[in-house]
Amino acid sequence: MAPLPRSEYVSLTTFRRTGAPVATPVWAAPDGDDLVVWTRADSGKVKRLRHTSRVTVAPCDVRGKVEGPAVDAVAGFVDRAEWPQALAALRRAYGWKFRLGHHFSRFWHRVTRQGGERHELIRIHPA
Fold first, then answer.
1. What is the predicted pLDDT for the residue at 72?
2. pLDDT for the residue 67
């Protein structure tokens, strides 16, 4: 079992129903042996993860240019009871950048009065 990459950005590759890969650069905070990703609940990666938990992750730059080998992994959604721990991992890894984005997102969600949860937390385990 190869360890998951520890870089500021990782290329998270999810798979369509056809098996076609879709890579997306994301922030991924280490939480033990796992990585935690915070993303919009209506994003394509969330929709793809609802039908297959198979993913690959590789270190990359902000634009998604892969800078190392990809690692096979399994992704799942974080239970609401575990959100505080996952959010704490993101705060430790990204500091004020994550705090600012998270607070602005919550503020905007209240201003627009959208129903339901706007974001999803994803936990990635090495395969």
1. 96
2. 94
pTM here is 0.84
Give the chain's domains with CATH numbers: 9-126 (2.30.110.10)
Q: Strand 9-15's sheet: what is its strand order? A: 21-27, 9-15, 54-60, 71-77, 119-126, 34-40, 29-31
Angstrom distance (rounded) from CA 116 to CA 66: 34
Give 123's contacts (C-beta < 8 A, 6+ positions apart).
Answer: 31, 34, 35, 36, 75, 76, 77, 78, 86
Beta bridge mates, 41: none
Q: How confident is the model at residue 106 (pLDDT cuts 50, 70, 90)?
A: low
- 99 close to 52: Cβ distance less than 8 angstroms: no
Task: Express each pLDDT in 1-30 by its tens digit.
Answer: 567 888 889 999 999 999 999 999 998 999
